Amino acid sequence: MKSLLALGLIATAFAITCPRRFDSAKVFRVKPQNEKQVSFLKSLASKIPIDFWYPDSASHIVNQMEVNFLVRAEHSNTTKTLLEQNGLHYEILFQNLQEEIDKQLERNSPDSYSYTKYNEWHKISAWTARMAEKKPKLISRLQIGKTFENRPMYILQVGKQKDSKKAIFMDCGIHAREWISPAFCQWFVKEAIRTYGKDKVMTNLLDNMKFYILPVLNIDGYIWSWTSDRCWRKNRSNVTSNKCIGVDLNRNFDAAWGTVDASKDPCTENFCGPSAESEPETKAVATFIRSHLSSIKAYLSIHSYSQMILFPYGYTLNKAPNHDELNELAKKASQAIASLYGKKYKYGTSALTIYPSSGCSDDWAYNQGIKYSFTFELRDRGKYGFFLPESEIKPTCQEIMLAVKLMASHILSRTM
Ligand SMILES: [Zn+2]
Q: Which of 13, 98, 332, 337 is deepest in the core (most CB within 10 A)?
């Protein structure tokens, strides 16, 4: 999920010296009822700096879509007045976003690690080493590259046979502010080793295939979202001469790069970078996957929020060759999710279900010949958005676990 506008420039420059503040910043939820209101909302974005939470930019707004956006304190009264003048009912999801940020940060103790809390990068990094050390027969840690700020990118390889011929690659945390995503990758590893030898499905999976788990893809951005700007989305590269920092890594893959919903303006939230794979993080993942193409049967990418299971394509409305199978699998996964706590996840192609976009990792992986490629958008549907309370980490991870196990079992039985 995405977007900022001109505000990005000022905010970024400011954030270099001190954390970006969100005092009295408000998150609005509106639902346009006709085309007139749609065009009004699109034009509002050109009058006031708006950080779109859902959809990622004003251009994706359509009639009857629930739109969530963040407005700084100084613009909130104007926003209210303009919404009212245009007959748009609104709900305010957060009256003071800074309070929410402070609450989350207060609960964070510097050293303790927990699967039911959001963990800072240094804790996740230490956890990857600990896991590999604790369960050497099931887990090994590999470094696949370095981030723009020179941090090592670690993958945990999980499975009984190191030379297994089938593998699933899963990444979390491409977008920095989507904190529930890395929480899921960690949960997955924990559950895999906890239930191996006890749960039939998991035992079968780990005996016959391996998982490559990248707990945080965008490490620099994730750290920045903890220290300087909780709403940060992109990585932290400054390869362009522009003052604005960061590339949207999920627009930087070589799949119709730079076409649909990808901006060439470094100050936007969906800036696709100077070229495909220009970013070290994208390059590391793409290189790793390319060199393991004979074994990688599936690619899963975990994002938040909006509760969806998406599959190719995002950059075209054309159906993928195995569309029906992907659709059926996504449907079953969505049913498995709903069976636990009743949460409804929509499913379908990215272009039709969320919005068209290009340079995305799932389309890229699919075009490499990985026939099972899915993106998950986890909880919620906008009440808390990127600020999903820690009390929802466990149920979210539990329901997604069911979906991933179901998909993995299908993939194991259907691939050679
Ligand atoms: Zn995302």
A: 337
